[in-house]
Specification:
Layout (H helix, E strand, L loop, with lengths): L4 E4 L5 H11 L6 H10 L3 E8 L2 E10 L4 E9 L8 H15 L4 E7 L3 H9 L3 E11 L10 E3 L5 H12 L3 E3 L4 E3 L2 H10 L2 E4 L4 E10 L1 E11 L1 H17 L4 E7 L2 H9 L9 E8 L1
Parallel strand pairs: 4-5, 12-13
Antiparallel strand pairs: 1-2, 2-3, 3-4, 5-14, 6-13, 6-14, 7-10, 8-9, 10-11, 11-12
Helix pairs in contact: 5-6, 7-8
This protein binds coenzyme A (COA).
Length: 281
């Protein structure tokens, strides 16, 4: 086999990429849905690995504000695995991020994906957080005494609280993760989708989504057991108010927060979760 060539993807690669993805997870990969967006994004590079004129690997790096880069969409054709192709794609992404002045690279993978975890560890990524998927049904009646909307002017102090509690807090960003910033908090607060308990004992951000069916997505939730319980109950009540079918969430695995959410009627499958890795550049 000749050495893989790593290069930027071109529109004409689409057919070959689709063929390759059909072999990876039996089709149904979200990547074809974001192909054009990734290909033409001014804030990211979509790379492919080519061997003997054939596309056998793909990876996307997104350049984010505040010095961060996010790696996503790592896929290598099953017949070309364990030949260093994903490692080469990752190193190219890291190099590009570094030359844009980025200082931290982040990626996420499922707790079940040992190959991706080993790959990240081999390339010097460290585990930053485990994120648990939670879900609940909407609720028509429930008692919430201490939760209040977060004011946009509180964004700075709420961000400081989250940083003290979580280290660098993570926000779910629709199939990716980013560091929660004061700007995020201000935006959710202005939209009416940021809630706090006290100043502060708990904090949650969510938004209504429609994808398959309408649901409420908890993008961030952290707090003591009692605060998490109240925030969870409010999320379920809000879902009913907006006529949504479910509440989903991606929450950092902290024992008290998860206990509170379980008391609020959330479930979290034991095995399904994500590991978020990071590497200083
Ligand atoms: C994960 C994936 C991208 C790795 O691609 P790859 O080209 O085979 O990876 P590399 O050959 O560059 O592997 C580099 C290192 O990662 C680790 N690694 C890769 N695959 C592994 C596996 N199946 N089991 C254990 N370690 C693995 C090893 O340390 C390997 O080094 P080594 O071969 O010298 O031991 C590929 O398996 C794949 O496409 N999987 C399906 C899609 C997927 O899960 N993507 C990641 C989503 S986050």
């Amino acid at each position: 086999m000749s050495l893989p060539l790593i290069r930027e993807a071109a529109p004409s690669d689409r057919r070959q990429v689709a063929e390759m993805l059909a072999e990876v997870w039996g089709g149904g990969d979200f990547i074809m849905g974001v192909w054009r967006e990734w290909l033409s994004s001014p804030s990211g590079d979509l790379l492919v690995a080519e061997v003997d004129g054939r596309v056998v690997g793909i990876m996307y790096v997104e350049y984010r504000p505040a010095g961060e880069a996010y790696l996503a969409g790592a896929r290598v054709h099953p017949r070309y695995r364990r030949r260093g192709i994903a490692a080469q794609l990752t190193l190219e992404c890291l190099g590009r991020a570094r030359s844009r002045g980025k200082t931290l690279a982040t990626l996420a993978t499922s707790v079940e994906n040992l190959a991706a975890q080993r790959l990240a560890e081999k390339l010097g990524f460290r585990l930053r957080a485990r994120v648990v998927r939670v879900r609940a049904s909407p609720l028509s009646r429930g008692q919430v005494d201490r939760v209040r909307p977060l004011g946009p002017e509180e964004a700075g102090s709420a961000e400081m609280w989250a940083r003290e509690r979580d280290g660098r807090p993570l926000k779910f960003d629709w199939y990716s993760y980013s560091t929660l910033t004061a700007d995020d908090l201000r935006l959710y607060a202005e939209e009416g989708f940021a809630f706090a308990v006290g100043r502060y004992d708990g904090l949650a951000l969510w938004q209504p989504y429609s994808f398959g069916g309408p649901f409420l997505m908890l993008d961030y939730l952290s707090g003591s057991r009692e605060s998490a319980r109240e925030l969870g109950v409010l999320a379920r009540l809000e879902a009913r108010r907006f006529k949504l079918e479910r509440v989903y969430g991606q929450v950092r695995a902290s024992e008290d927060t998860l206990k509170g959410l379980v008391e609020a009627g959330f479930r979290h499958p034991k095995t399904r979760g994500m590991l978020v890795y990071e590497k200083p550049l």
